[in-house]
Amino acid sequence: MMTVNEVSRLTGVSIRTLQYYDKIGLLKPTGYTQAGYRLYDDTALETLQQILLFRELEFPLKEIKEMISRPDFDRNKALEQQITLLNMKKEHLENLIRYARDIRNGGERTMDFSAFDTKKMDEYAKRAREQWGNTAEYQEFEEKSQGRTKEMELETAKEFMQLFAEFGELKQEGPGAEKAQKQVRKLQDYITEHFYTCSDEILFSLGQMYAGGGEFMANIDKAGGEGTAAFVAEAIRICCGK
After folding, report:
1. Phi, psi (5° rounding) for residue 117?
2. Per 3-state DSSP, what percentage of the chain is helix, strand, and coil (rounded to 5)?
3. How far apart are CA 37 and CA 32, in angstroms?
4. Cβ proximity of 175 and 234 under 8 Å
5. Chain mean position to CA 203
6. Side-chain half-sphere CA neighbours of 57 within 13 A
7. pLDDT digits (tens, 9 = 90+) for 63-118
C-alpha cells in the first residue's frame, strides 16, 4: 500500500489531482490510514495507469470513468486500443514536424494542409468511445451500483467469481450437461440482478470475451482451475444456441 504522497511522487500526478479523482469517483483509494490518509494498492495503480493513458489521448474524465467502470471492461483490450491510438498520434506528430521543416526550408509543400488531418485518428477514437461508452447497460449498471459501499462491491465481486469456481467443478460433466447449462442461467441471472439486463446476445458476447485471453480469462481460470474460461464460453454458446 502506498500513501497519496508516495503515489504522487511515483507517478507525477499531483496530490490535488488524486484527491479530485477520488471526489468524482474516478479513482477511489483502496483504504485509509488510522489518521484518514488515502492508501493505494497495485490494483489502484493499474487503474491510474489506464486513466493517464486515456488522458494522454485527450479523453474527457467523464468518458474515462464510464469506460473503466464497466463490468465488462477488459484492460488488455483497452491497452491495445491505446497503443493503436498512440501510434496514430505519433505518426500525426511526425507528419507535422516534417511539414514545419518544409515551411522553414521553403519547400514546395507549404500549401499542403494534409498534415493537419486527424480524421483517421478521430474515427478510431470515436469507435473506442462507442465500445466502452455510455450504453443502456452501463446506465443500468450505474443505477444498480448507487449506494453500494466498497465492502458491498467486494462481496459482489467475490460472489461473481464463486460462480466460476462452481463452473470449474462441472468441467468433467461437459459444457452441454444439465448442471452446466443450469449454471449458465445462474450466471446470467446474477449479472442481470447485480449489473445489467443480460440478454442471451450479451451473454454470448461475454462468453467470447471470457475465453479471449487477458485479465478476464486469467481470473476465471484462477477461480475454477485451468480451462474453466474456455469451458464457460462453450457452455454459454450451447445455452444460447450459437
Report:
1. -75, 120
2. 70, 5, 25
3. 5
4. yes
5. 17
6. 26
7. 888 788 776 777 777 888 888 888 888 887 888 888 788 777 776 555 566 666 77
